[in-house]
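Discussion board: Methods & Data

I've been asked by a reviewer to show the raw model output for two of the constructs in my manuscript, not just the figures. I'm not sure how much to include, so I'm pasting the format here to get opinions. Each protein appears as its amino acid sequence followed by a line of discrete structure tokens. Is this the kind of thing reviewers expect to see in a supplement, or should I convert it first? Here is construct A:
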Amino acid sequence: MGRRVVLYYGSFAALLGDSSVGLVREIRRTVRHELRDHLESLAGVDDPAREDMEFLARFREGRRLRGRER
């Protein structure tokens, strides 16, 4: 796990459009999430990595299901 977090404006803009309030909210949420991941990693807790993998699996499955419905 690295010691820095890189936020890509384009990724947030693609999700949120022109909503500056939504952008600030999502950046705060993302930074808190990444900080939690880092601190729990330092403590030897693997929950955040497992939760991230579960989230990605659900996200990918949802994209596959939507692709089939078109």
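Construct B, same format:
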Amino acid sequence: MQQENLVNVGPPKTTRFEKARIVGARALQISMGAPILVDAEENTNPIDIAVTELNAKILPITIRRTLPDSTFQDIPLKWLS
């Protein structure tokens, strides 16, 4: 059975808060020595590299969106625009 790429909880885009959280977490990983997933010859700042990776949609990150009634949906970053 194939899983649908359907976002049931929240908007079909990443919110500015989700973007900030993803960029911050990924920049911390890069600064601690995690491998860089894009060609970053001109970018040396971990935040710029994290933004480039986010825009390229190559990060293997899943966002959990929760509703007030404790239901949630795990959404891979690839599904969001």
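Answer (T.O., handling editor elsewhere):
This is acceptable in a supplement if you add a one-line summary per construct. For B, something like: The radius of gyration is 14 Å.
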